[in-house]
Amino acid sequence: MKTTIAQIGASLDQEVTLGAWVANKRSSGKIAFLQLRDGTGFIQGVVVKAEVAEDVFQIAKGLTQESAIYVSGRVQADERAPSGYELIVHKIEVIHEATDYPITPKEHGTEFLMDHRHLWLRSKRQHALMKIRNEIIHATYRFFADHGFTKLDAPILTSSAPEGTTELFHTKYFEEDAYLSQTGQLYAEAGAMALGRVFTFGPTFRAEKSKTRRHLIEFWMIEAEMAFLEHEESLQLQENYVAYLADQVVRHCQTELKLLDRDVSKLEAIRAPFPRITYDEAVAWLQENGFSELQWGEDFGSPHETALAERFDRPVFITNYPRALKPFYMQPAPDRDDVVLCADLIAPEGYGEIIGGSERIHDYDLLTEELTRHNLSLDEYGWYLDLRKYGSVPHAGFGLGLERTVAWFGGVDHVRETIPFPRLLNRMYP
Ligand code: 4AD
Asked: Where is the signal peptide (predicted)?
């Protein structure tokens, strides 16, 4: 019977066939151990010379790393194996023999591995990270469907630059100028006025010259936008969403978290509600705790965020940033107009900002003023202003960076390992 490594437990003590690649091999004169992978998981195949035909043992001994095979054998329980099973091999059919696979079991430098990203994805650690990424994506669709959201697809080619012009990727749209999308938000706002609650999920582009372990040039963002909803209600939705993601990853990615040596208790602590502190409080606290030179009005860098996050065992919302630090569309606070109704969600353990969100300006005149103040063309934003002309309502939304969330849940240092093919400041290959 043909099966997969993920399903193999259902065939305990039975004879099965797997299509698999040879991740690694050890052999002596009497026994060969094959580390097999089939995309669904990893399992050890054991070939005992005395128990198989002579040619089968010779084939096993000669197998090279990453060769593709059909392998048949009996499924045996093995408590020590991560999968809980091993395969007692009886038959091997070579489909394709790989020669000189470049990623050997020895240590390789990061640049070498990044040059071979198309192959590196096959390794256990990368497999685990892609599975966690996949779980977050599927859990996102479940969460938003359960909360009455409609998935809306925002365009990638756009004519505007809502998150600021310095980080724009410029291209041509026939004769016109165009930009790669920095955010789906403005389109999600139009969607919210049509469908009430929407979320988008797609690639976003920032030509950021920052070479940090948290910045990608192309990253995937999940953005939610809700009509008739104010700032505080948006924060509640965000904390419930993030807590749900953590819970689902803990439930469904046990093998992966174990392989990554992730301290699961840290993820189990991610329970709503999350603490909230204002930007004002954060500045005052930082000034007294090692950052005396920080001035009100300055943006936080990652050392500031890490210091603030270390105070809590779960993510923390930093709310009401100075208006001057944030994009044009954020609603000023009701009691003072130098800060806006926004929040950044900072992950614990130094994983940085995961979510940025805000209540949006819904007053036509105020939005026009803000666009003008930011030197943005009212013509270009004509369609966006229409949303404030025809049945404008309070609304709010947020965007979660997928790669930073994968890095946090998986406990990895750098976002380059959290996306299949990272685009970095100095890398677009492969
Ligand atoms: O805070 P940002 O810029 O927010 C927006 O784009 C809003 N329009 C979202 C919204 O309200 N709909 O980005 C949101 C999140 C950040 O918190 C971070 O997780 C991620 O996107 N992010 C990046 N991730 C990787 N590389 C980069 N260069 C990133 N820039 C932002």
From this structure: none
